[in-house]
Amino acid sequence: MNLPNRITLARICLIPFLMVFLLVDFPFYPEPLQLGSLALPYNQLIAAFIFIVAASTDGIDGYLARKNNMVTNLGKLLDPLADKLLVTAVLISLVQMGKLDSWIAVVIISREFAVTGLRQIALLDGSVVAASAWGKLKTVVQIVAIVLLLLNNFPFSYTGIHVDVIAVWAAALITIWSGVDYFIKNKNLLHLSKV
């Protein structure tokens, strides 16, 4: 249990706290923070902070593991699992809150399952499906979209431009394309046995 793996586990442990702030209706929440015409509930503000901290640990644990030669099988299992749990938990919470259409959450989560399945096939074949540039861009855009939804489109709400909606659509499209890209580049792994 080295430092990178502890950081990854910390990311997983933050998920329940994130969901509590998003989904539990505490009677003692103060009035929303008023930023001019924008009302920002404190629970969403705290959840956004937790999400940003959790998402930022993704790059940190991987960097430390590679730099210090601390890559382990446990880390290879936990790191992608932590990412998927974090994004899935927030997407489902946003659907529950009425901030995200359920079909977008289904598309994003389905892509994650599909690519995870492809990676499992690769492992059985003795190869590795490396993260692609599209996959990395997908992660960044998803994080941006989620943060904007949690912050009610702050600071762009003052401009009248729905950057949160644009980011959600961009996340959905890039998520779909990155999934297709993984399958195109690794189609050799999908051997169809003859009956």
Automatic annotation (TrEMBL):
Report keywords, A-Z. Lipid biosynthesis, Lipid metabolism, Membrane, Phospholipid biosynthesis, Phospholipid metabolism, Transferase, Transmembrane, Transmembrane helix
According to its UniProt entry, this protein's organism is: Paenibacillus silvae
Task: Note whether Transmembrane occurs among the keywords.
Answer: yes
From the broadest rank down, the organism's phylogenetic lineage runs: Bacteria, Bacillati, Bacillota, Bacilli, Bacillales
Tell me which EC number(s) this protein carries. 2.7.8.5
Q: Where does this polypeptide localize?
A: Membrane
Q: Which Gene3D superfamilies match?
A: 1.20.120.1760
Q: In which pathway does it act?
A: Lipid metabolism; Phospholipid metabolism; phosphatidylglycerol biosynthesis; phosphatidylglycerol from CDP-diacylglycerol: step 1/2
Supply the name of the protein. CDP-diacylglycerol--glycerol-3-phosphate 3-phosphatidyltransferase
Q: What does this protein do?
A: This protein catalyzes the committed step to the synthesis of the acidic phospholipids.
Q: How does it sit in the membrane?
A: Multi-pass membrane protein
User: Which major enzyme category is it?
Assistant: transferase
Q: Please give the start and end residues of each transmembrane region.
A: 12-30, 42-64, 129-151, 163-184
Q: Which family does it belong to?
A: Belongs to the CDP-alcohol phosphatidyltransferase class-I family.
- What reaction(s) does this enzyme catalyze? a CDP-1,2-diacyl-sn-glycerol + sn-glycerol 3-phosphate = a 1,2-diacyl-sn-glycero-3-phospho-(1'-sn-glycero-3'-phosphate) + CMP + H(+)
What PANTHER family does the entry give?
Answer: CDP-DIACYLGLYCEROL--GLYCEROL-3-PHOSPHATE 3-PHOSPHATIDYLTRANSFERASE 1, CHLOROPLASTIC, CDP-DIACYLGLYCEROL--GLYCEROL-3-PHOSPHATE 3-PHOSPHATIDYLTRANSFERASE-RELATED
